[in-house]
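Example 9 (inverse folding). The structure is encoded as follows.
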């Protein structure tokens, strides 16, 4: 057996999408963000982020929506990799290859997932062994959803969403996601939320007792009833047809449905595989959704995919 010439070192990290089971939005802060009380759940829709040493910093994207993702310095994965390099004093550029399954601008934190993937992959490639809390700190500086993409599972987010706390959550849930053709910009949805609430007193955000009880019980029906998203009226205002998608879910037996994060993806929790299939077929036939996928949650956060670090030729 001989080493291929040149030996190619690469690290691949698989990172899940998220859905916000609960998203309570507080008042607009002076820094332009909103304080949140949110419950994140990681679901089994994944992007794969591969990094390898290269002459220059670069990123390539594959997958059906690759054309929607910036391939320059604006790419969140590239920003994350450079940020870690700067923090660790690394001067070795990497080429990043992203395979996207998570919808772009879909409210499922796809860009955040790629940033978390790049942080973990570069940490492994460069052998840094960065302490977890330091990686989480960097993640939070890159975007509010990035720390959760690292962590996965089910967790409560506070601050602007970047401060995570564990939550007692039982059970595994089946999800059906209805995708939209047109993404929604996260800042635009928050701005629309502010516009719709103008003149109203907005209290500091608190997780609801109904959600905490549902999570403790592991009861999918209770969880379905407790789903709540304060950004939903704003997303519906910007994309009114999402209302029909939500209605179709309840007609087909979903236990609950809501707009995922800032939308426009709609997430349904379903009792079993039969309802999942019925709903997926109904959504596809209705022409209301650009795509439909089934997933389960909670799943792990960002993880290195085991594999050879050196390509060998036998
Ligand atoms: C909608 C959610 O996905 C729910 O988890 C997140 O709040 C969005 O998180 P994200 O995409 O990581 O957002 P960031 O990149 O941190 O912020 C993008 C923009 O969203 C708005 N933003 C975000 C988070 C937050 N708590 N309040 C906000 O108002 C701000 O306009 C901000 O400039
Ligand atoms: N690696 C990336 N993947 C996807 N989008 C990226 C990436 N890097 C930068 N972006 C930009 O970020 C924008 C938002 O994309 P993203 O898929 O993260 O939205 P989202 O899932 O709605 O985000 P969130 O749920 O965190 O609010 C895209 O329109 C794109 O211009």
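The amino acid assigned to each position is listed next.
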């Amino acid at each position: 057996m001989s080493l291929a010439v040149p030996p190619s070192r690469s690290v691949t990290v698989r990172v899940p999408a998220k859905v916000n089971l609960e998203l309570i939005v507080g008042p607009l802060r002076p820094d332009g963000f909103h304080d949140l009380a949110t419950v994140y759940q990681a679901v089994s829709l994944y992007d794969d982020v591969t990094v390898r040493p290269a002459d220059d910093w670069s990123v390539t994207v594959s997958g059906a929506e690759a054309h929607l993702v910036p391939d320059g310095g604006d790419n969140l994965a590239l920003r994350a990799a450079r940020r870690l390099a700067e923090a660790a004093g690394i001067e070795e550029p990497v080429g990043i290859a992203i395979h996207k399954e998570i919808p772009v601008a879909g409210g499922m934190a796809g860009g955040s997932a790629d940033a978390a993937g790049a942080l973990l992959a570069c940490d492994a490639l460069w052998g840094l062994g960065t302490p977890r809390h330091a990686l989480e700190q960097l993640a939070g500086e890159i975007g509010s959803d990035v720390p959760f993409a690292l962590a996965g599972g089910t967790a409560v987010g506070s601050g602007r969403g970047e401060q995570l706390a564990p939550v007692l959550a039982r059970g595994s849930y089946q999800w059906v996601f209805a995708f939209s053709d047109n993404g929604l910009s996260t800042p635009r949805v928050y701005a629309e939320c502010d516009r719709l609430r103008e003149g109203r007193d907005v209290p500091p955000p608190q997780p609801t007792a109904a959600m905490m009880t549902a999570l403790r019980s592991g009861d999918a029906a209770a969880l379905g009833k407790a789903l709540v998203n304060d950004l939903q009226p704003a997303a519906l205002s910007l994309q009114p047809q999402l209302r029909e998608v939500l209605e179709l879910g309840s007609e087909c037996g979903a236990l609950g449905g809501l707009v995922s994060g800032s939308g426009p993806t709609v997430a349904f929790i379903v009792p079993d595989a039969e309802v999942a299939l019925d709903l997926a077929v109904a959504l596809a036939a209705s022409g209301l959704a650009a795509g439909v996928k089934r997933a389960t949650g909670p799943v792990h956060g960002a993880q290195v995919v085991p594999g050879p670090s050196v390509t060998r030729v036998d």
